[in-house]
């Protein structure tokens, strides 16, 4: 059985051979360590996805969406950039940053390099969250495995947020629909 991670669920993949056994229709191949099995054998066998019961996620993780979407960023320079401050919840450090307001995005994101350069502490998720682009293709930065817990501040508005840590390239912070 292979375990993969999905938004809010851990997905199990059963590897089943096409040969029949006297007991049931298919012979189930159980693999303890997928790295020890010949990849050609695995490629010839059909994969049947099985979704396990939802994981018991902590209260702070349940505030996150089950999947995240980054929409097309405006490359013509007409994007709405907001001067905001974020304060870390664990160390109370304040950081000024320009945030891109992206009304097509599901979830809010912070750049991985920005997090590392400022020394902001992250939280590791129990299950990764998949990230997709506006055209439904998987985002090249991969799934979200870490988040940052911050107090977001814009003018007179304050809000506690979990920001998904990803590689954003030109942006330090993207604010989407949560």
What does this entry show, briefly?
With 178 residues, the protein is mainly β.
Key structural traits:
single chain; 178 residues; mainly beta; Cathepsin D, subunit A, domain 1; 2 domains; 6-stranded mixed beta barrel; 4-stranded antiparallel sheet; 2 helices; 7% helix; globular; disordered N terminus
Largest sheet: 6 strands, mixed, barrel
Order of H and E elements: EEEHEEEEEHEEEEE
**Structural class assignment:** mainly beta
CA-CA gap between termini: 34 Å
Overall pLDDT level: 74
**What is the share of helical residues?**
under 10%
Number of strands: 13
Number of helices: 2
The CATH architecture of the largest domain: Beta Barrel
| Uncertain segments | 1-39, 44-53
Looking at CATH, which topology of the largest domain would you report?
Cathepsin D, subunit A, domain 1
Q: Major sheet: order of its strands?
A: 6-7-13-8-12-11
CATH superfamily of the largest domain: Acid Proteases
Mass-distribution shape: globular
Computed Rg: 20 Å
Overall tally of structural domains: 2
Strand content: over 45%
CATH class of the largest domain: Mainly Beta
